[in-house]
Amino acid sequence: MHGFIKRLAETRLGAGIFAAILTPIDLRFARWSGGSLTLTETLSGLPVATLTTTGARTRKPRSVPVVAIDDGDRLVIFGSSFGRSHQPGWDYNLRADPRATIARKGRVQAVLAREADEREREGYWARALKVYAGFGKYQERAGRRIPIWVLEAAAPGGA
Predict the structure, then answer these.
(1) pLDDT above 90: residue 71
(2) Are 27 and 2 in contact (CB under 8 A)?
(3) Which domain holds residue 146?
(4) What is the number of domains present in the chain?
(5) CATH number of the domain where residue 59 is located
(6) pLDDT per residue over 128-146, tens digit each?
(7) Global pTM value
């Protein structure tokens, strides 16, 4: 099942469908499971976390499921937006305010986000492609550079 879902999500049609329906379903599923699971993770086997940012314009909390790869005590996320030509909203939000929270496996943590530097980017992109080959197809379709963000634990009182 995992392989089928991943291959479907790589296609333009599958990515479009998933982009439209997965976020609200995943957020409900995460709430239902106490933050320990998302539907995307269950169906695809991808490591998914819920990122909550502050809206750049609204200043309201905005939550979205993202693929999150462990890097020691940090998490790395990718602004692929399912291969669409525009950046995901959370990318704009992090640029306006890098303080966020990440919920994964029932644990919520305040984080400070920063975009990966060029050296890190190369290694993280290679790891991303091993976790989900579809990122390569997303990059081809997007026609833009997919941002890679590093999330590090925020200092107490920092987020």
Answers:
(1) yes
(2) no
(3) 2-153
(4) 1
(5) 2.30.110.10
(6) 999 999 999 999 999 999 9
(7) 0.87
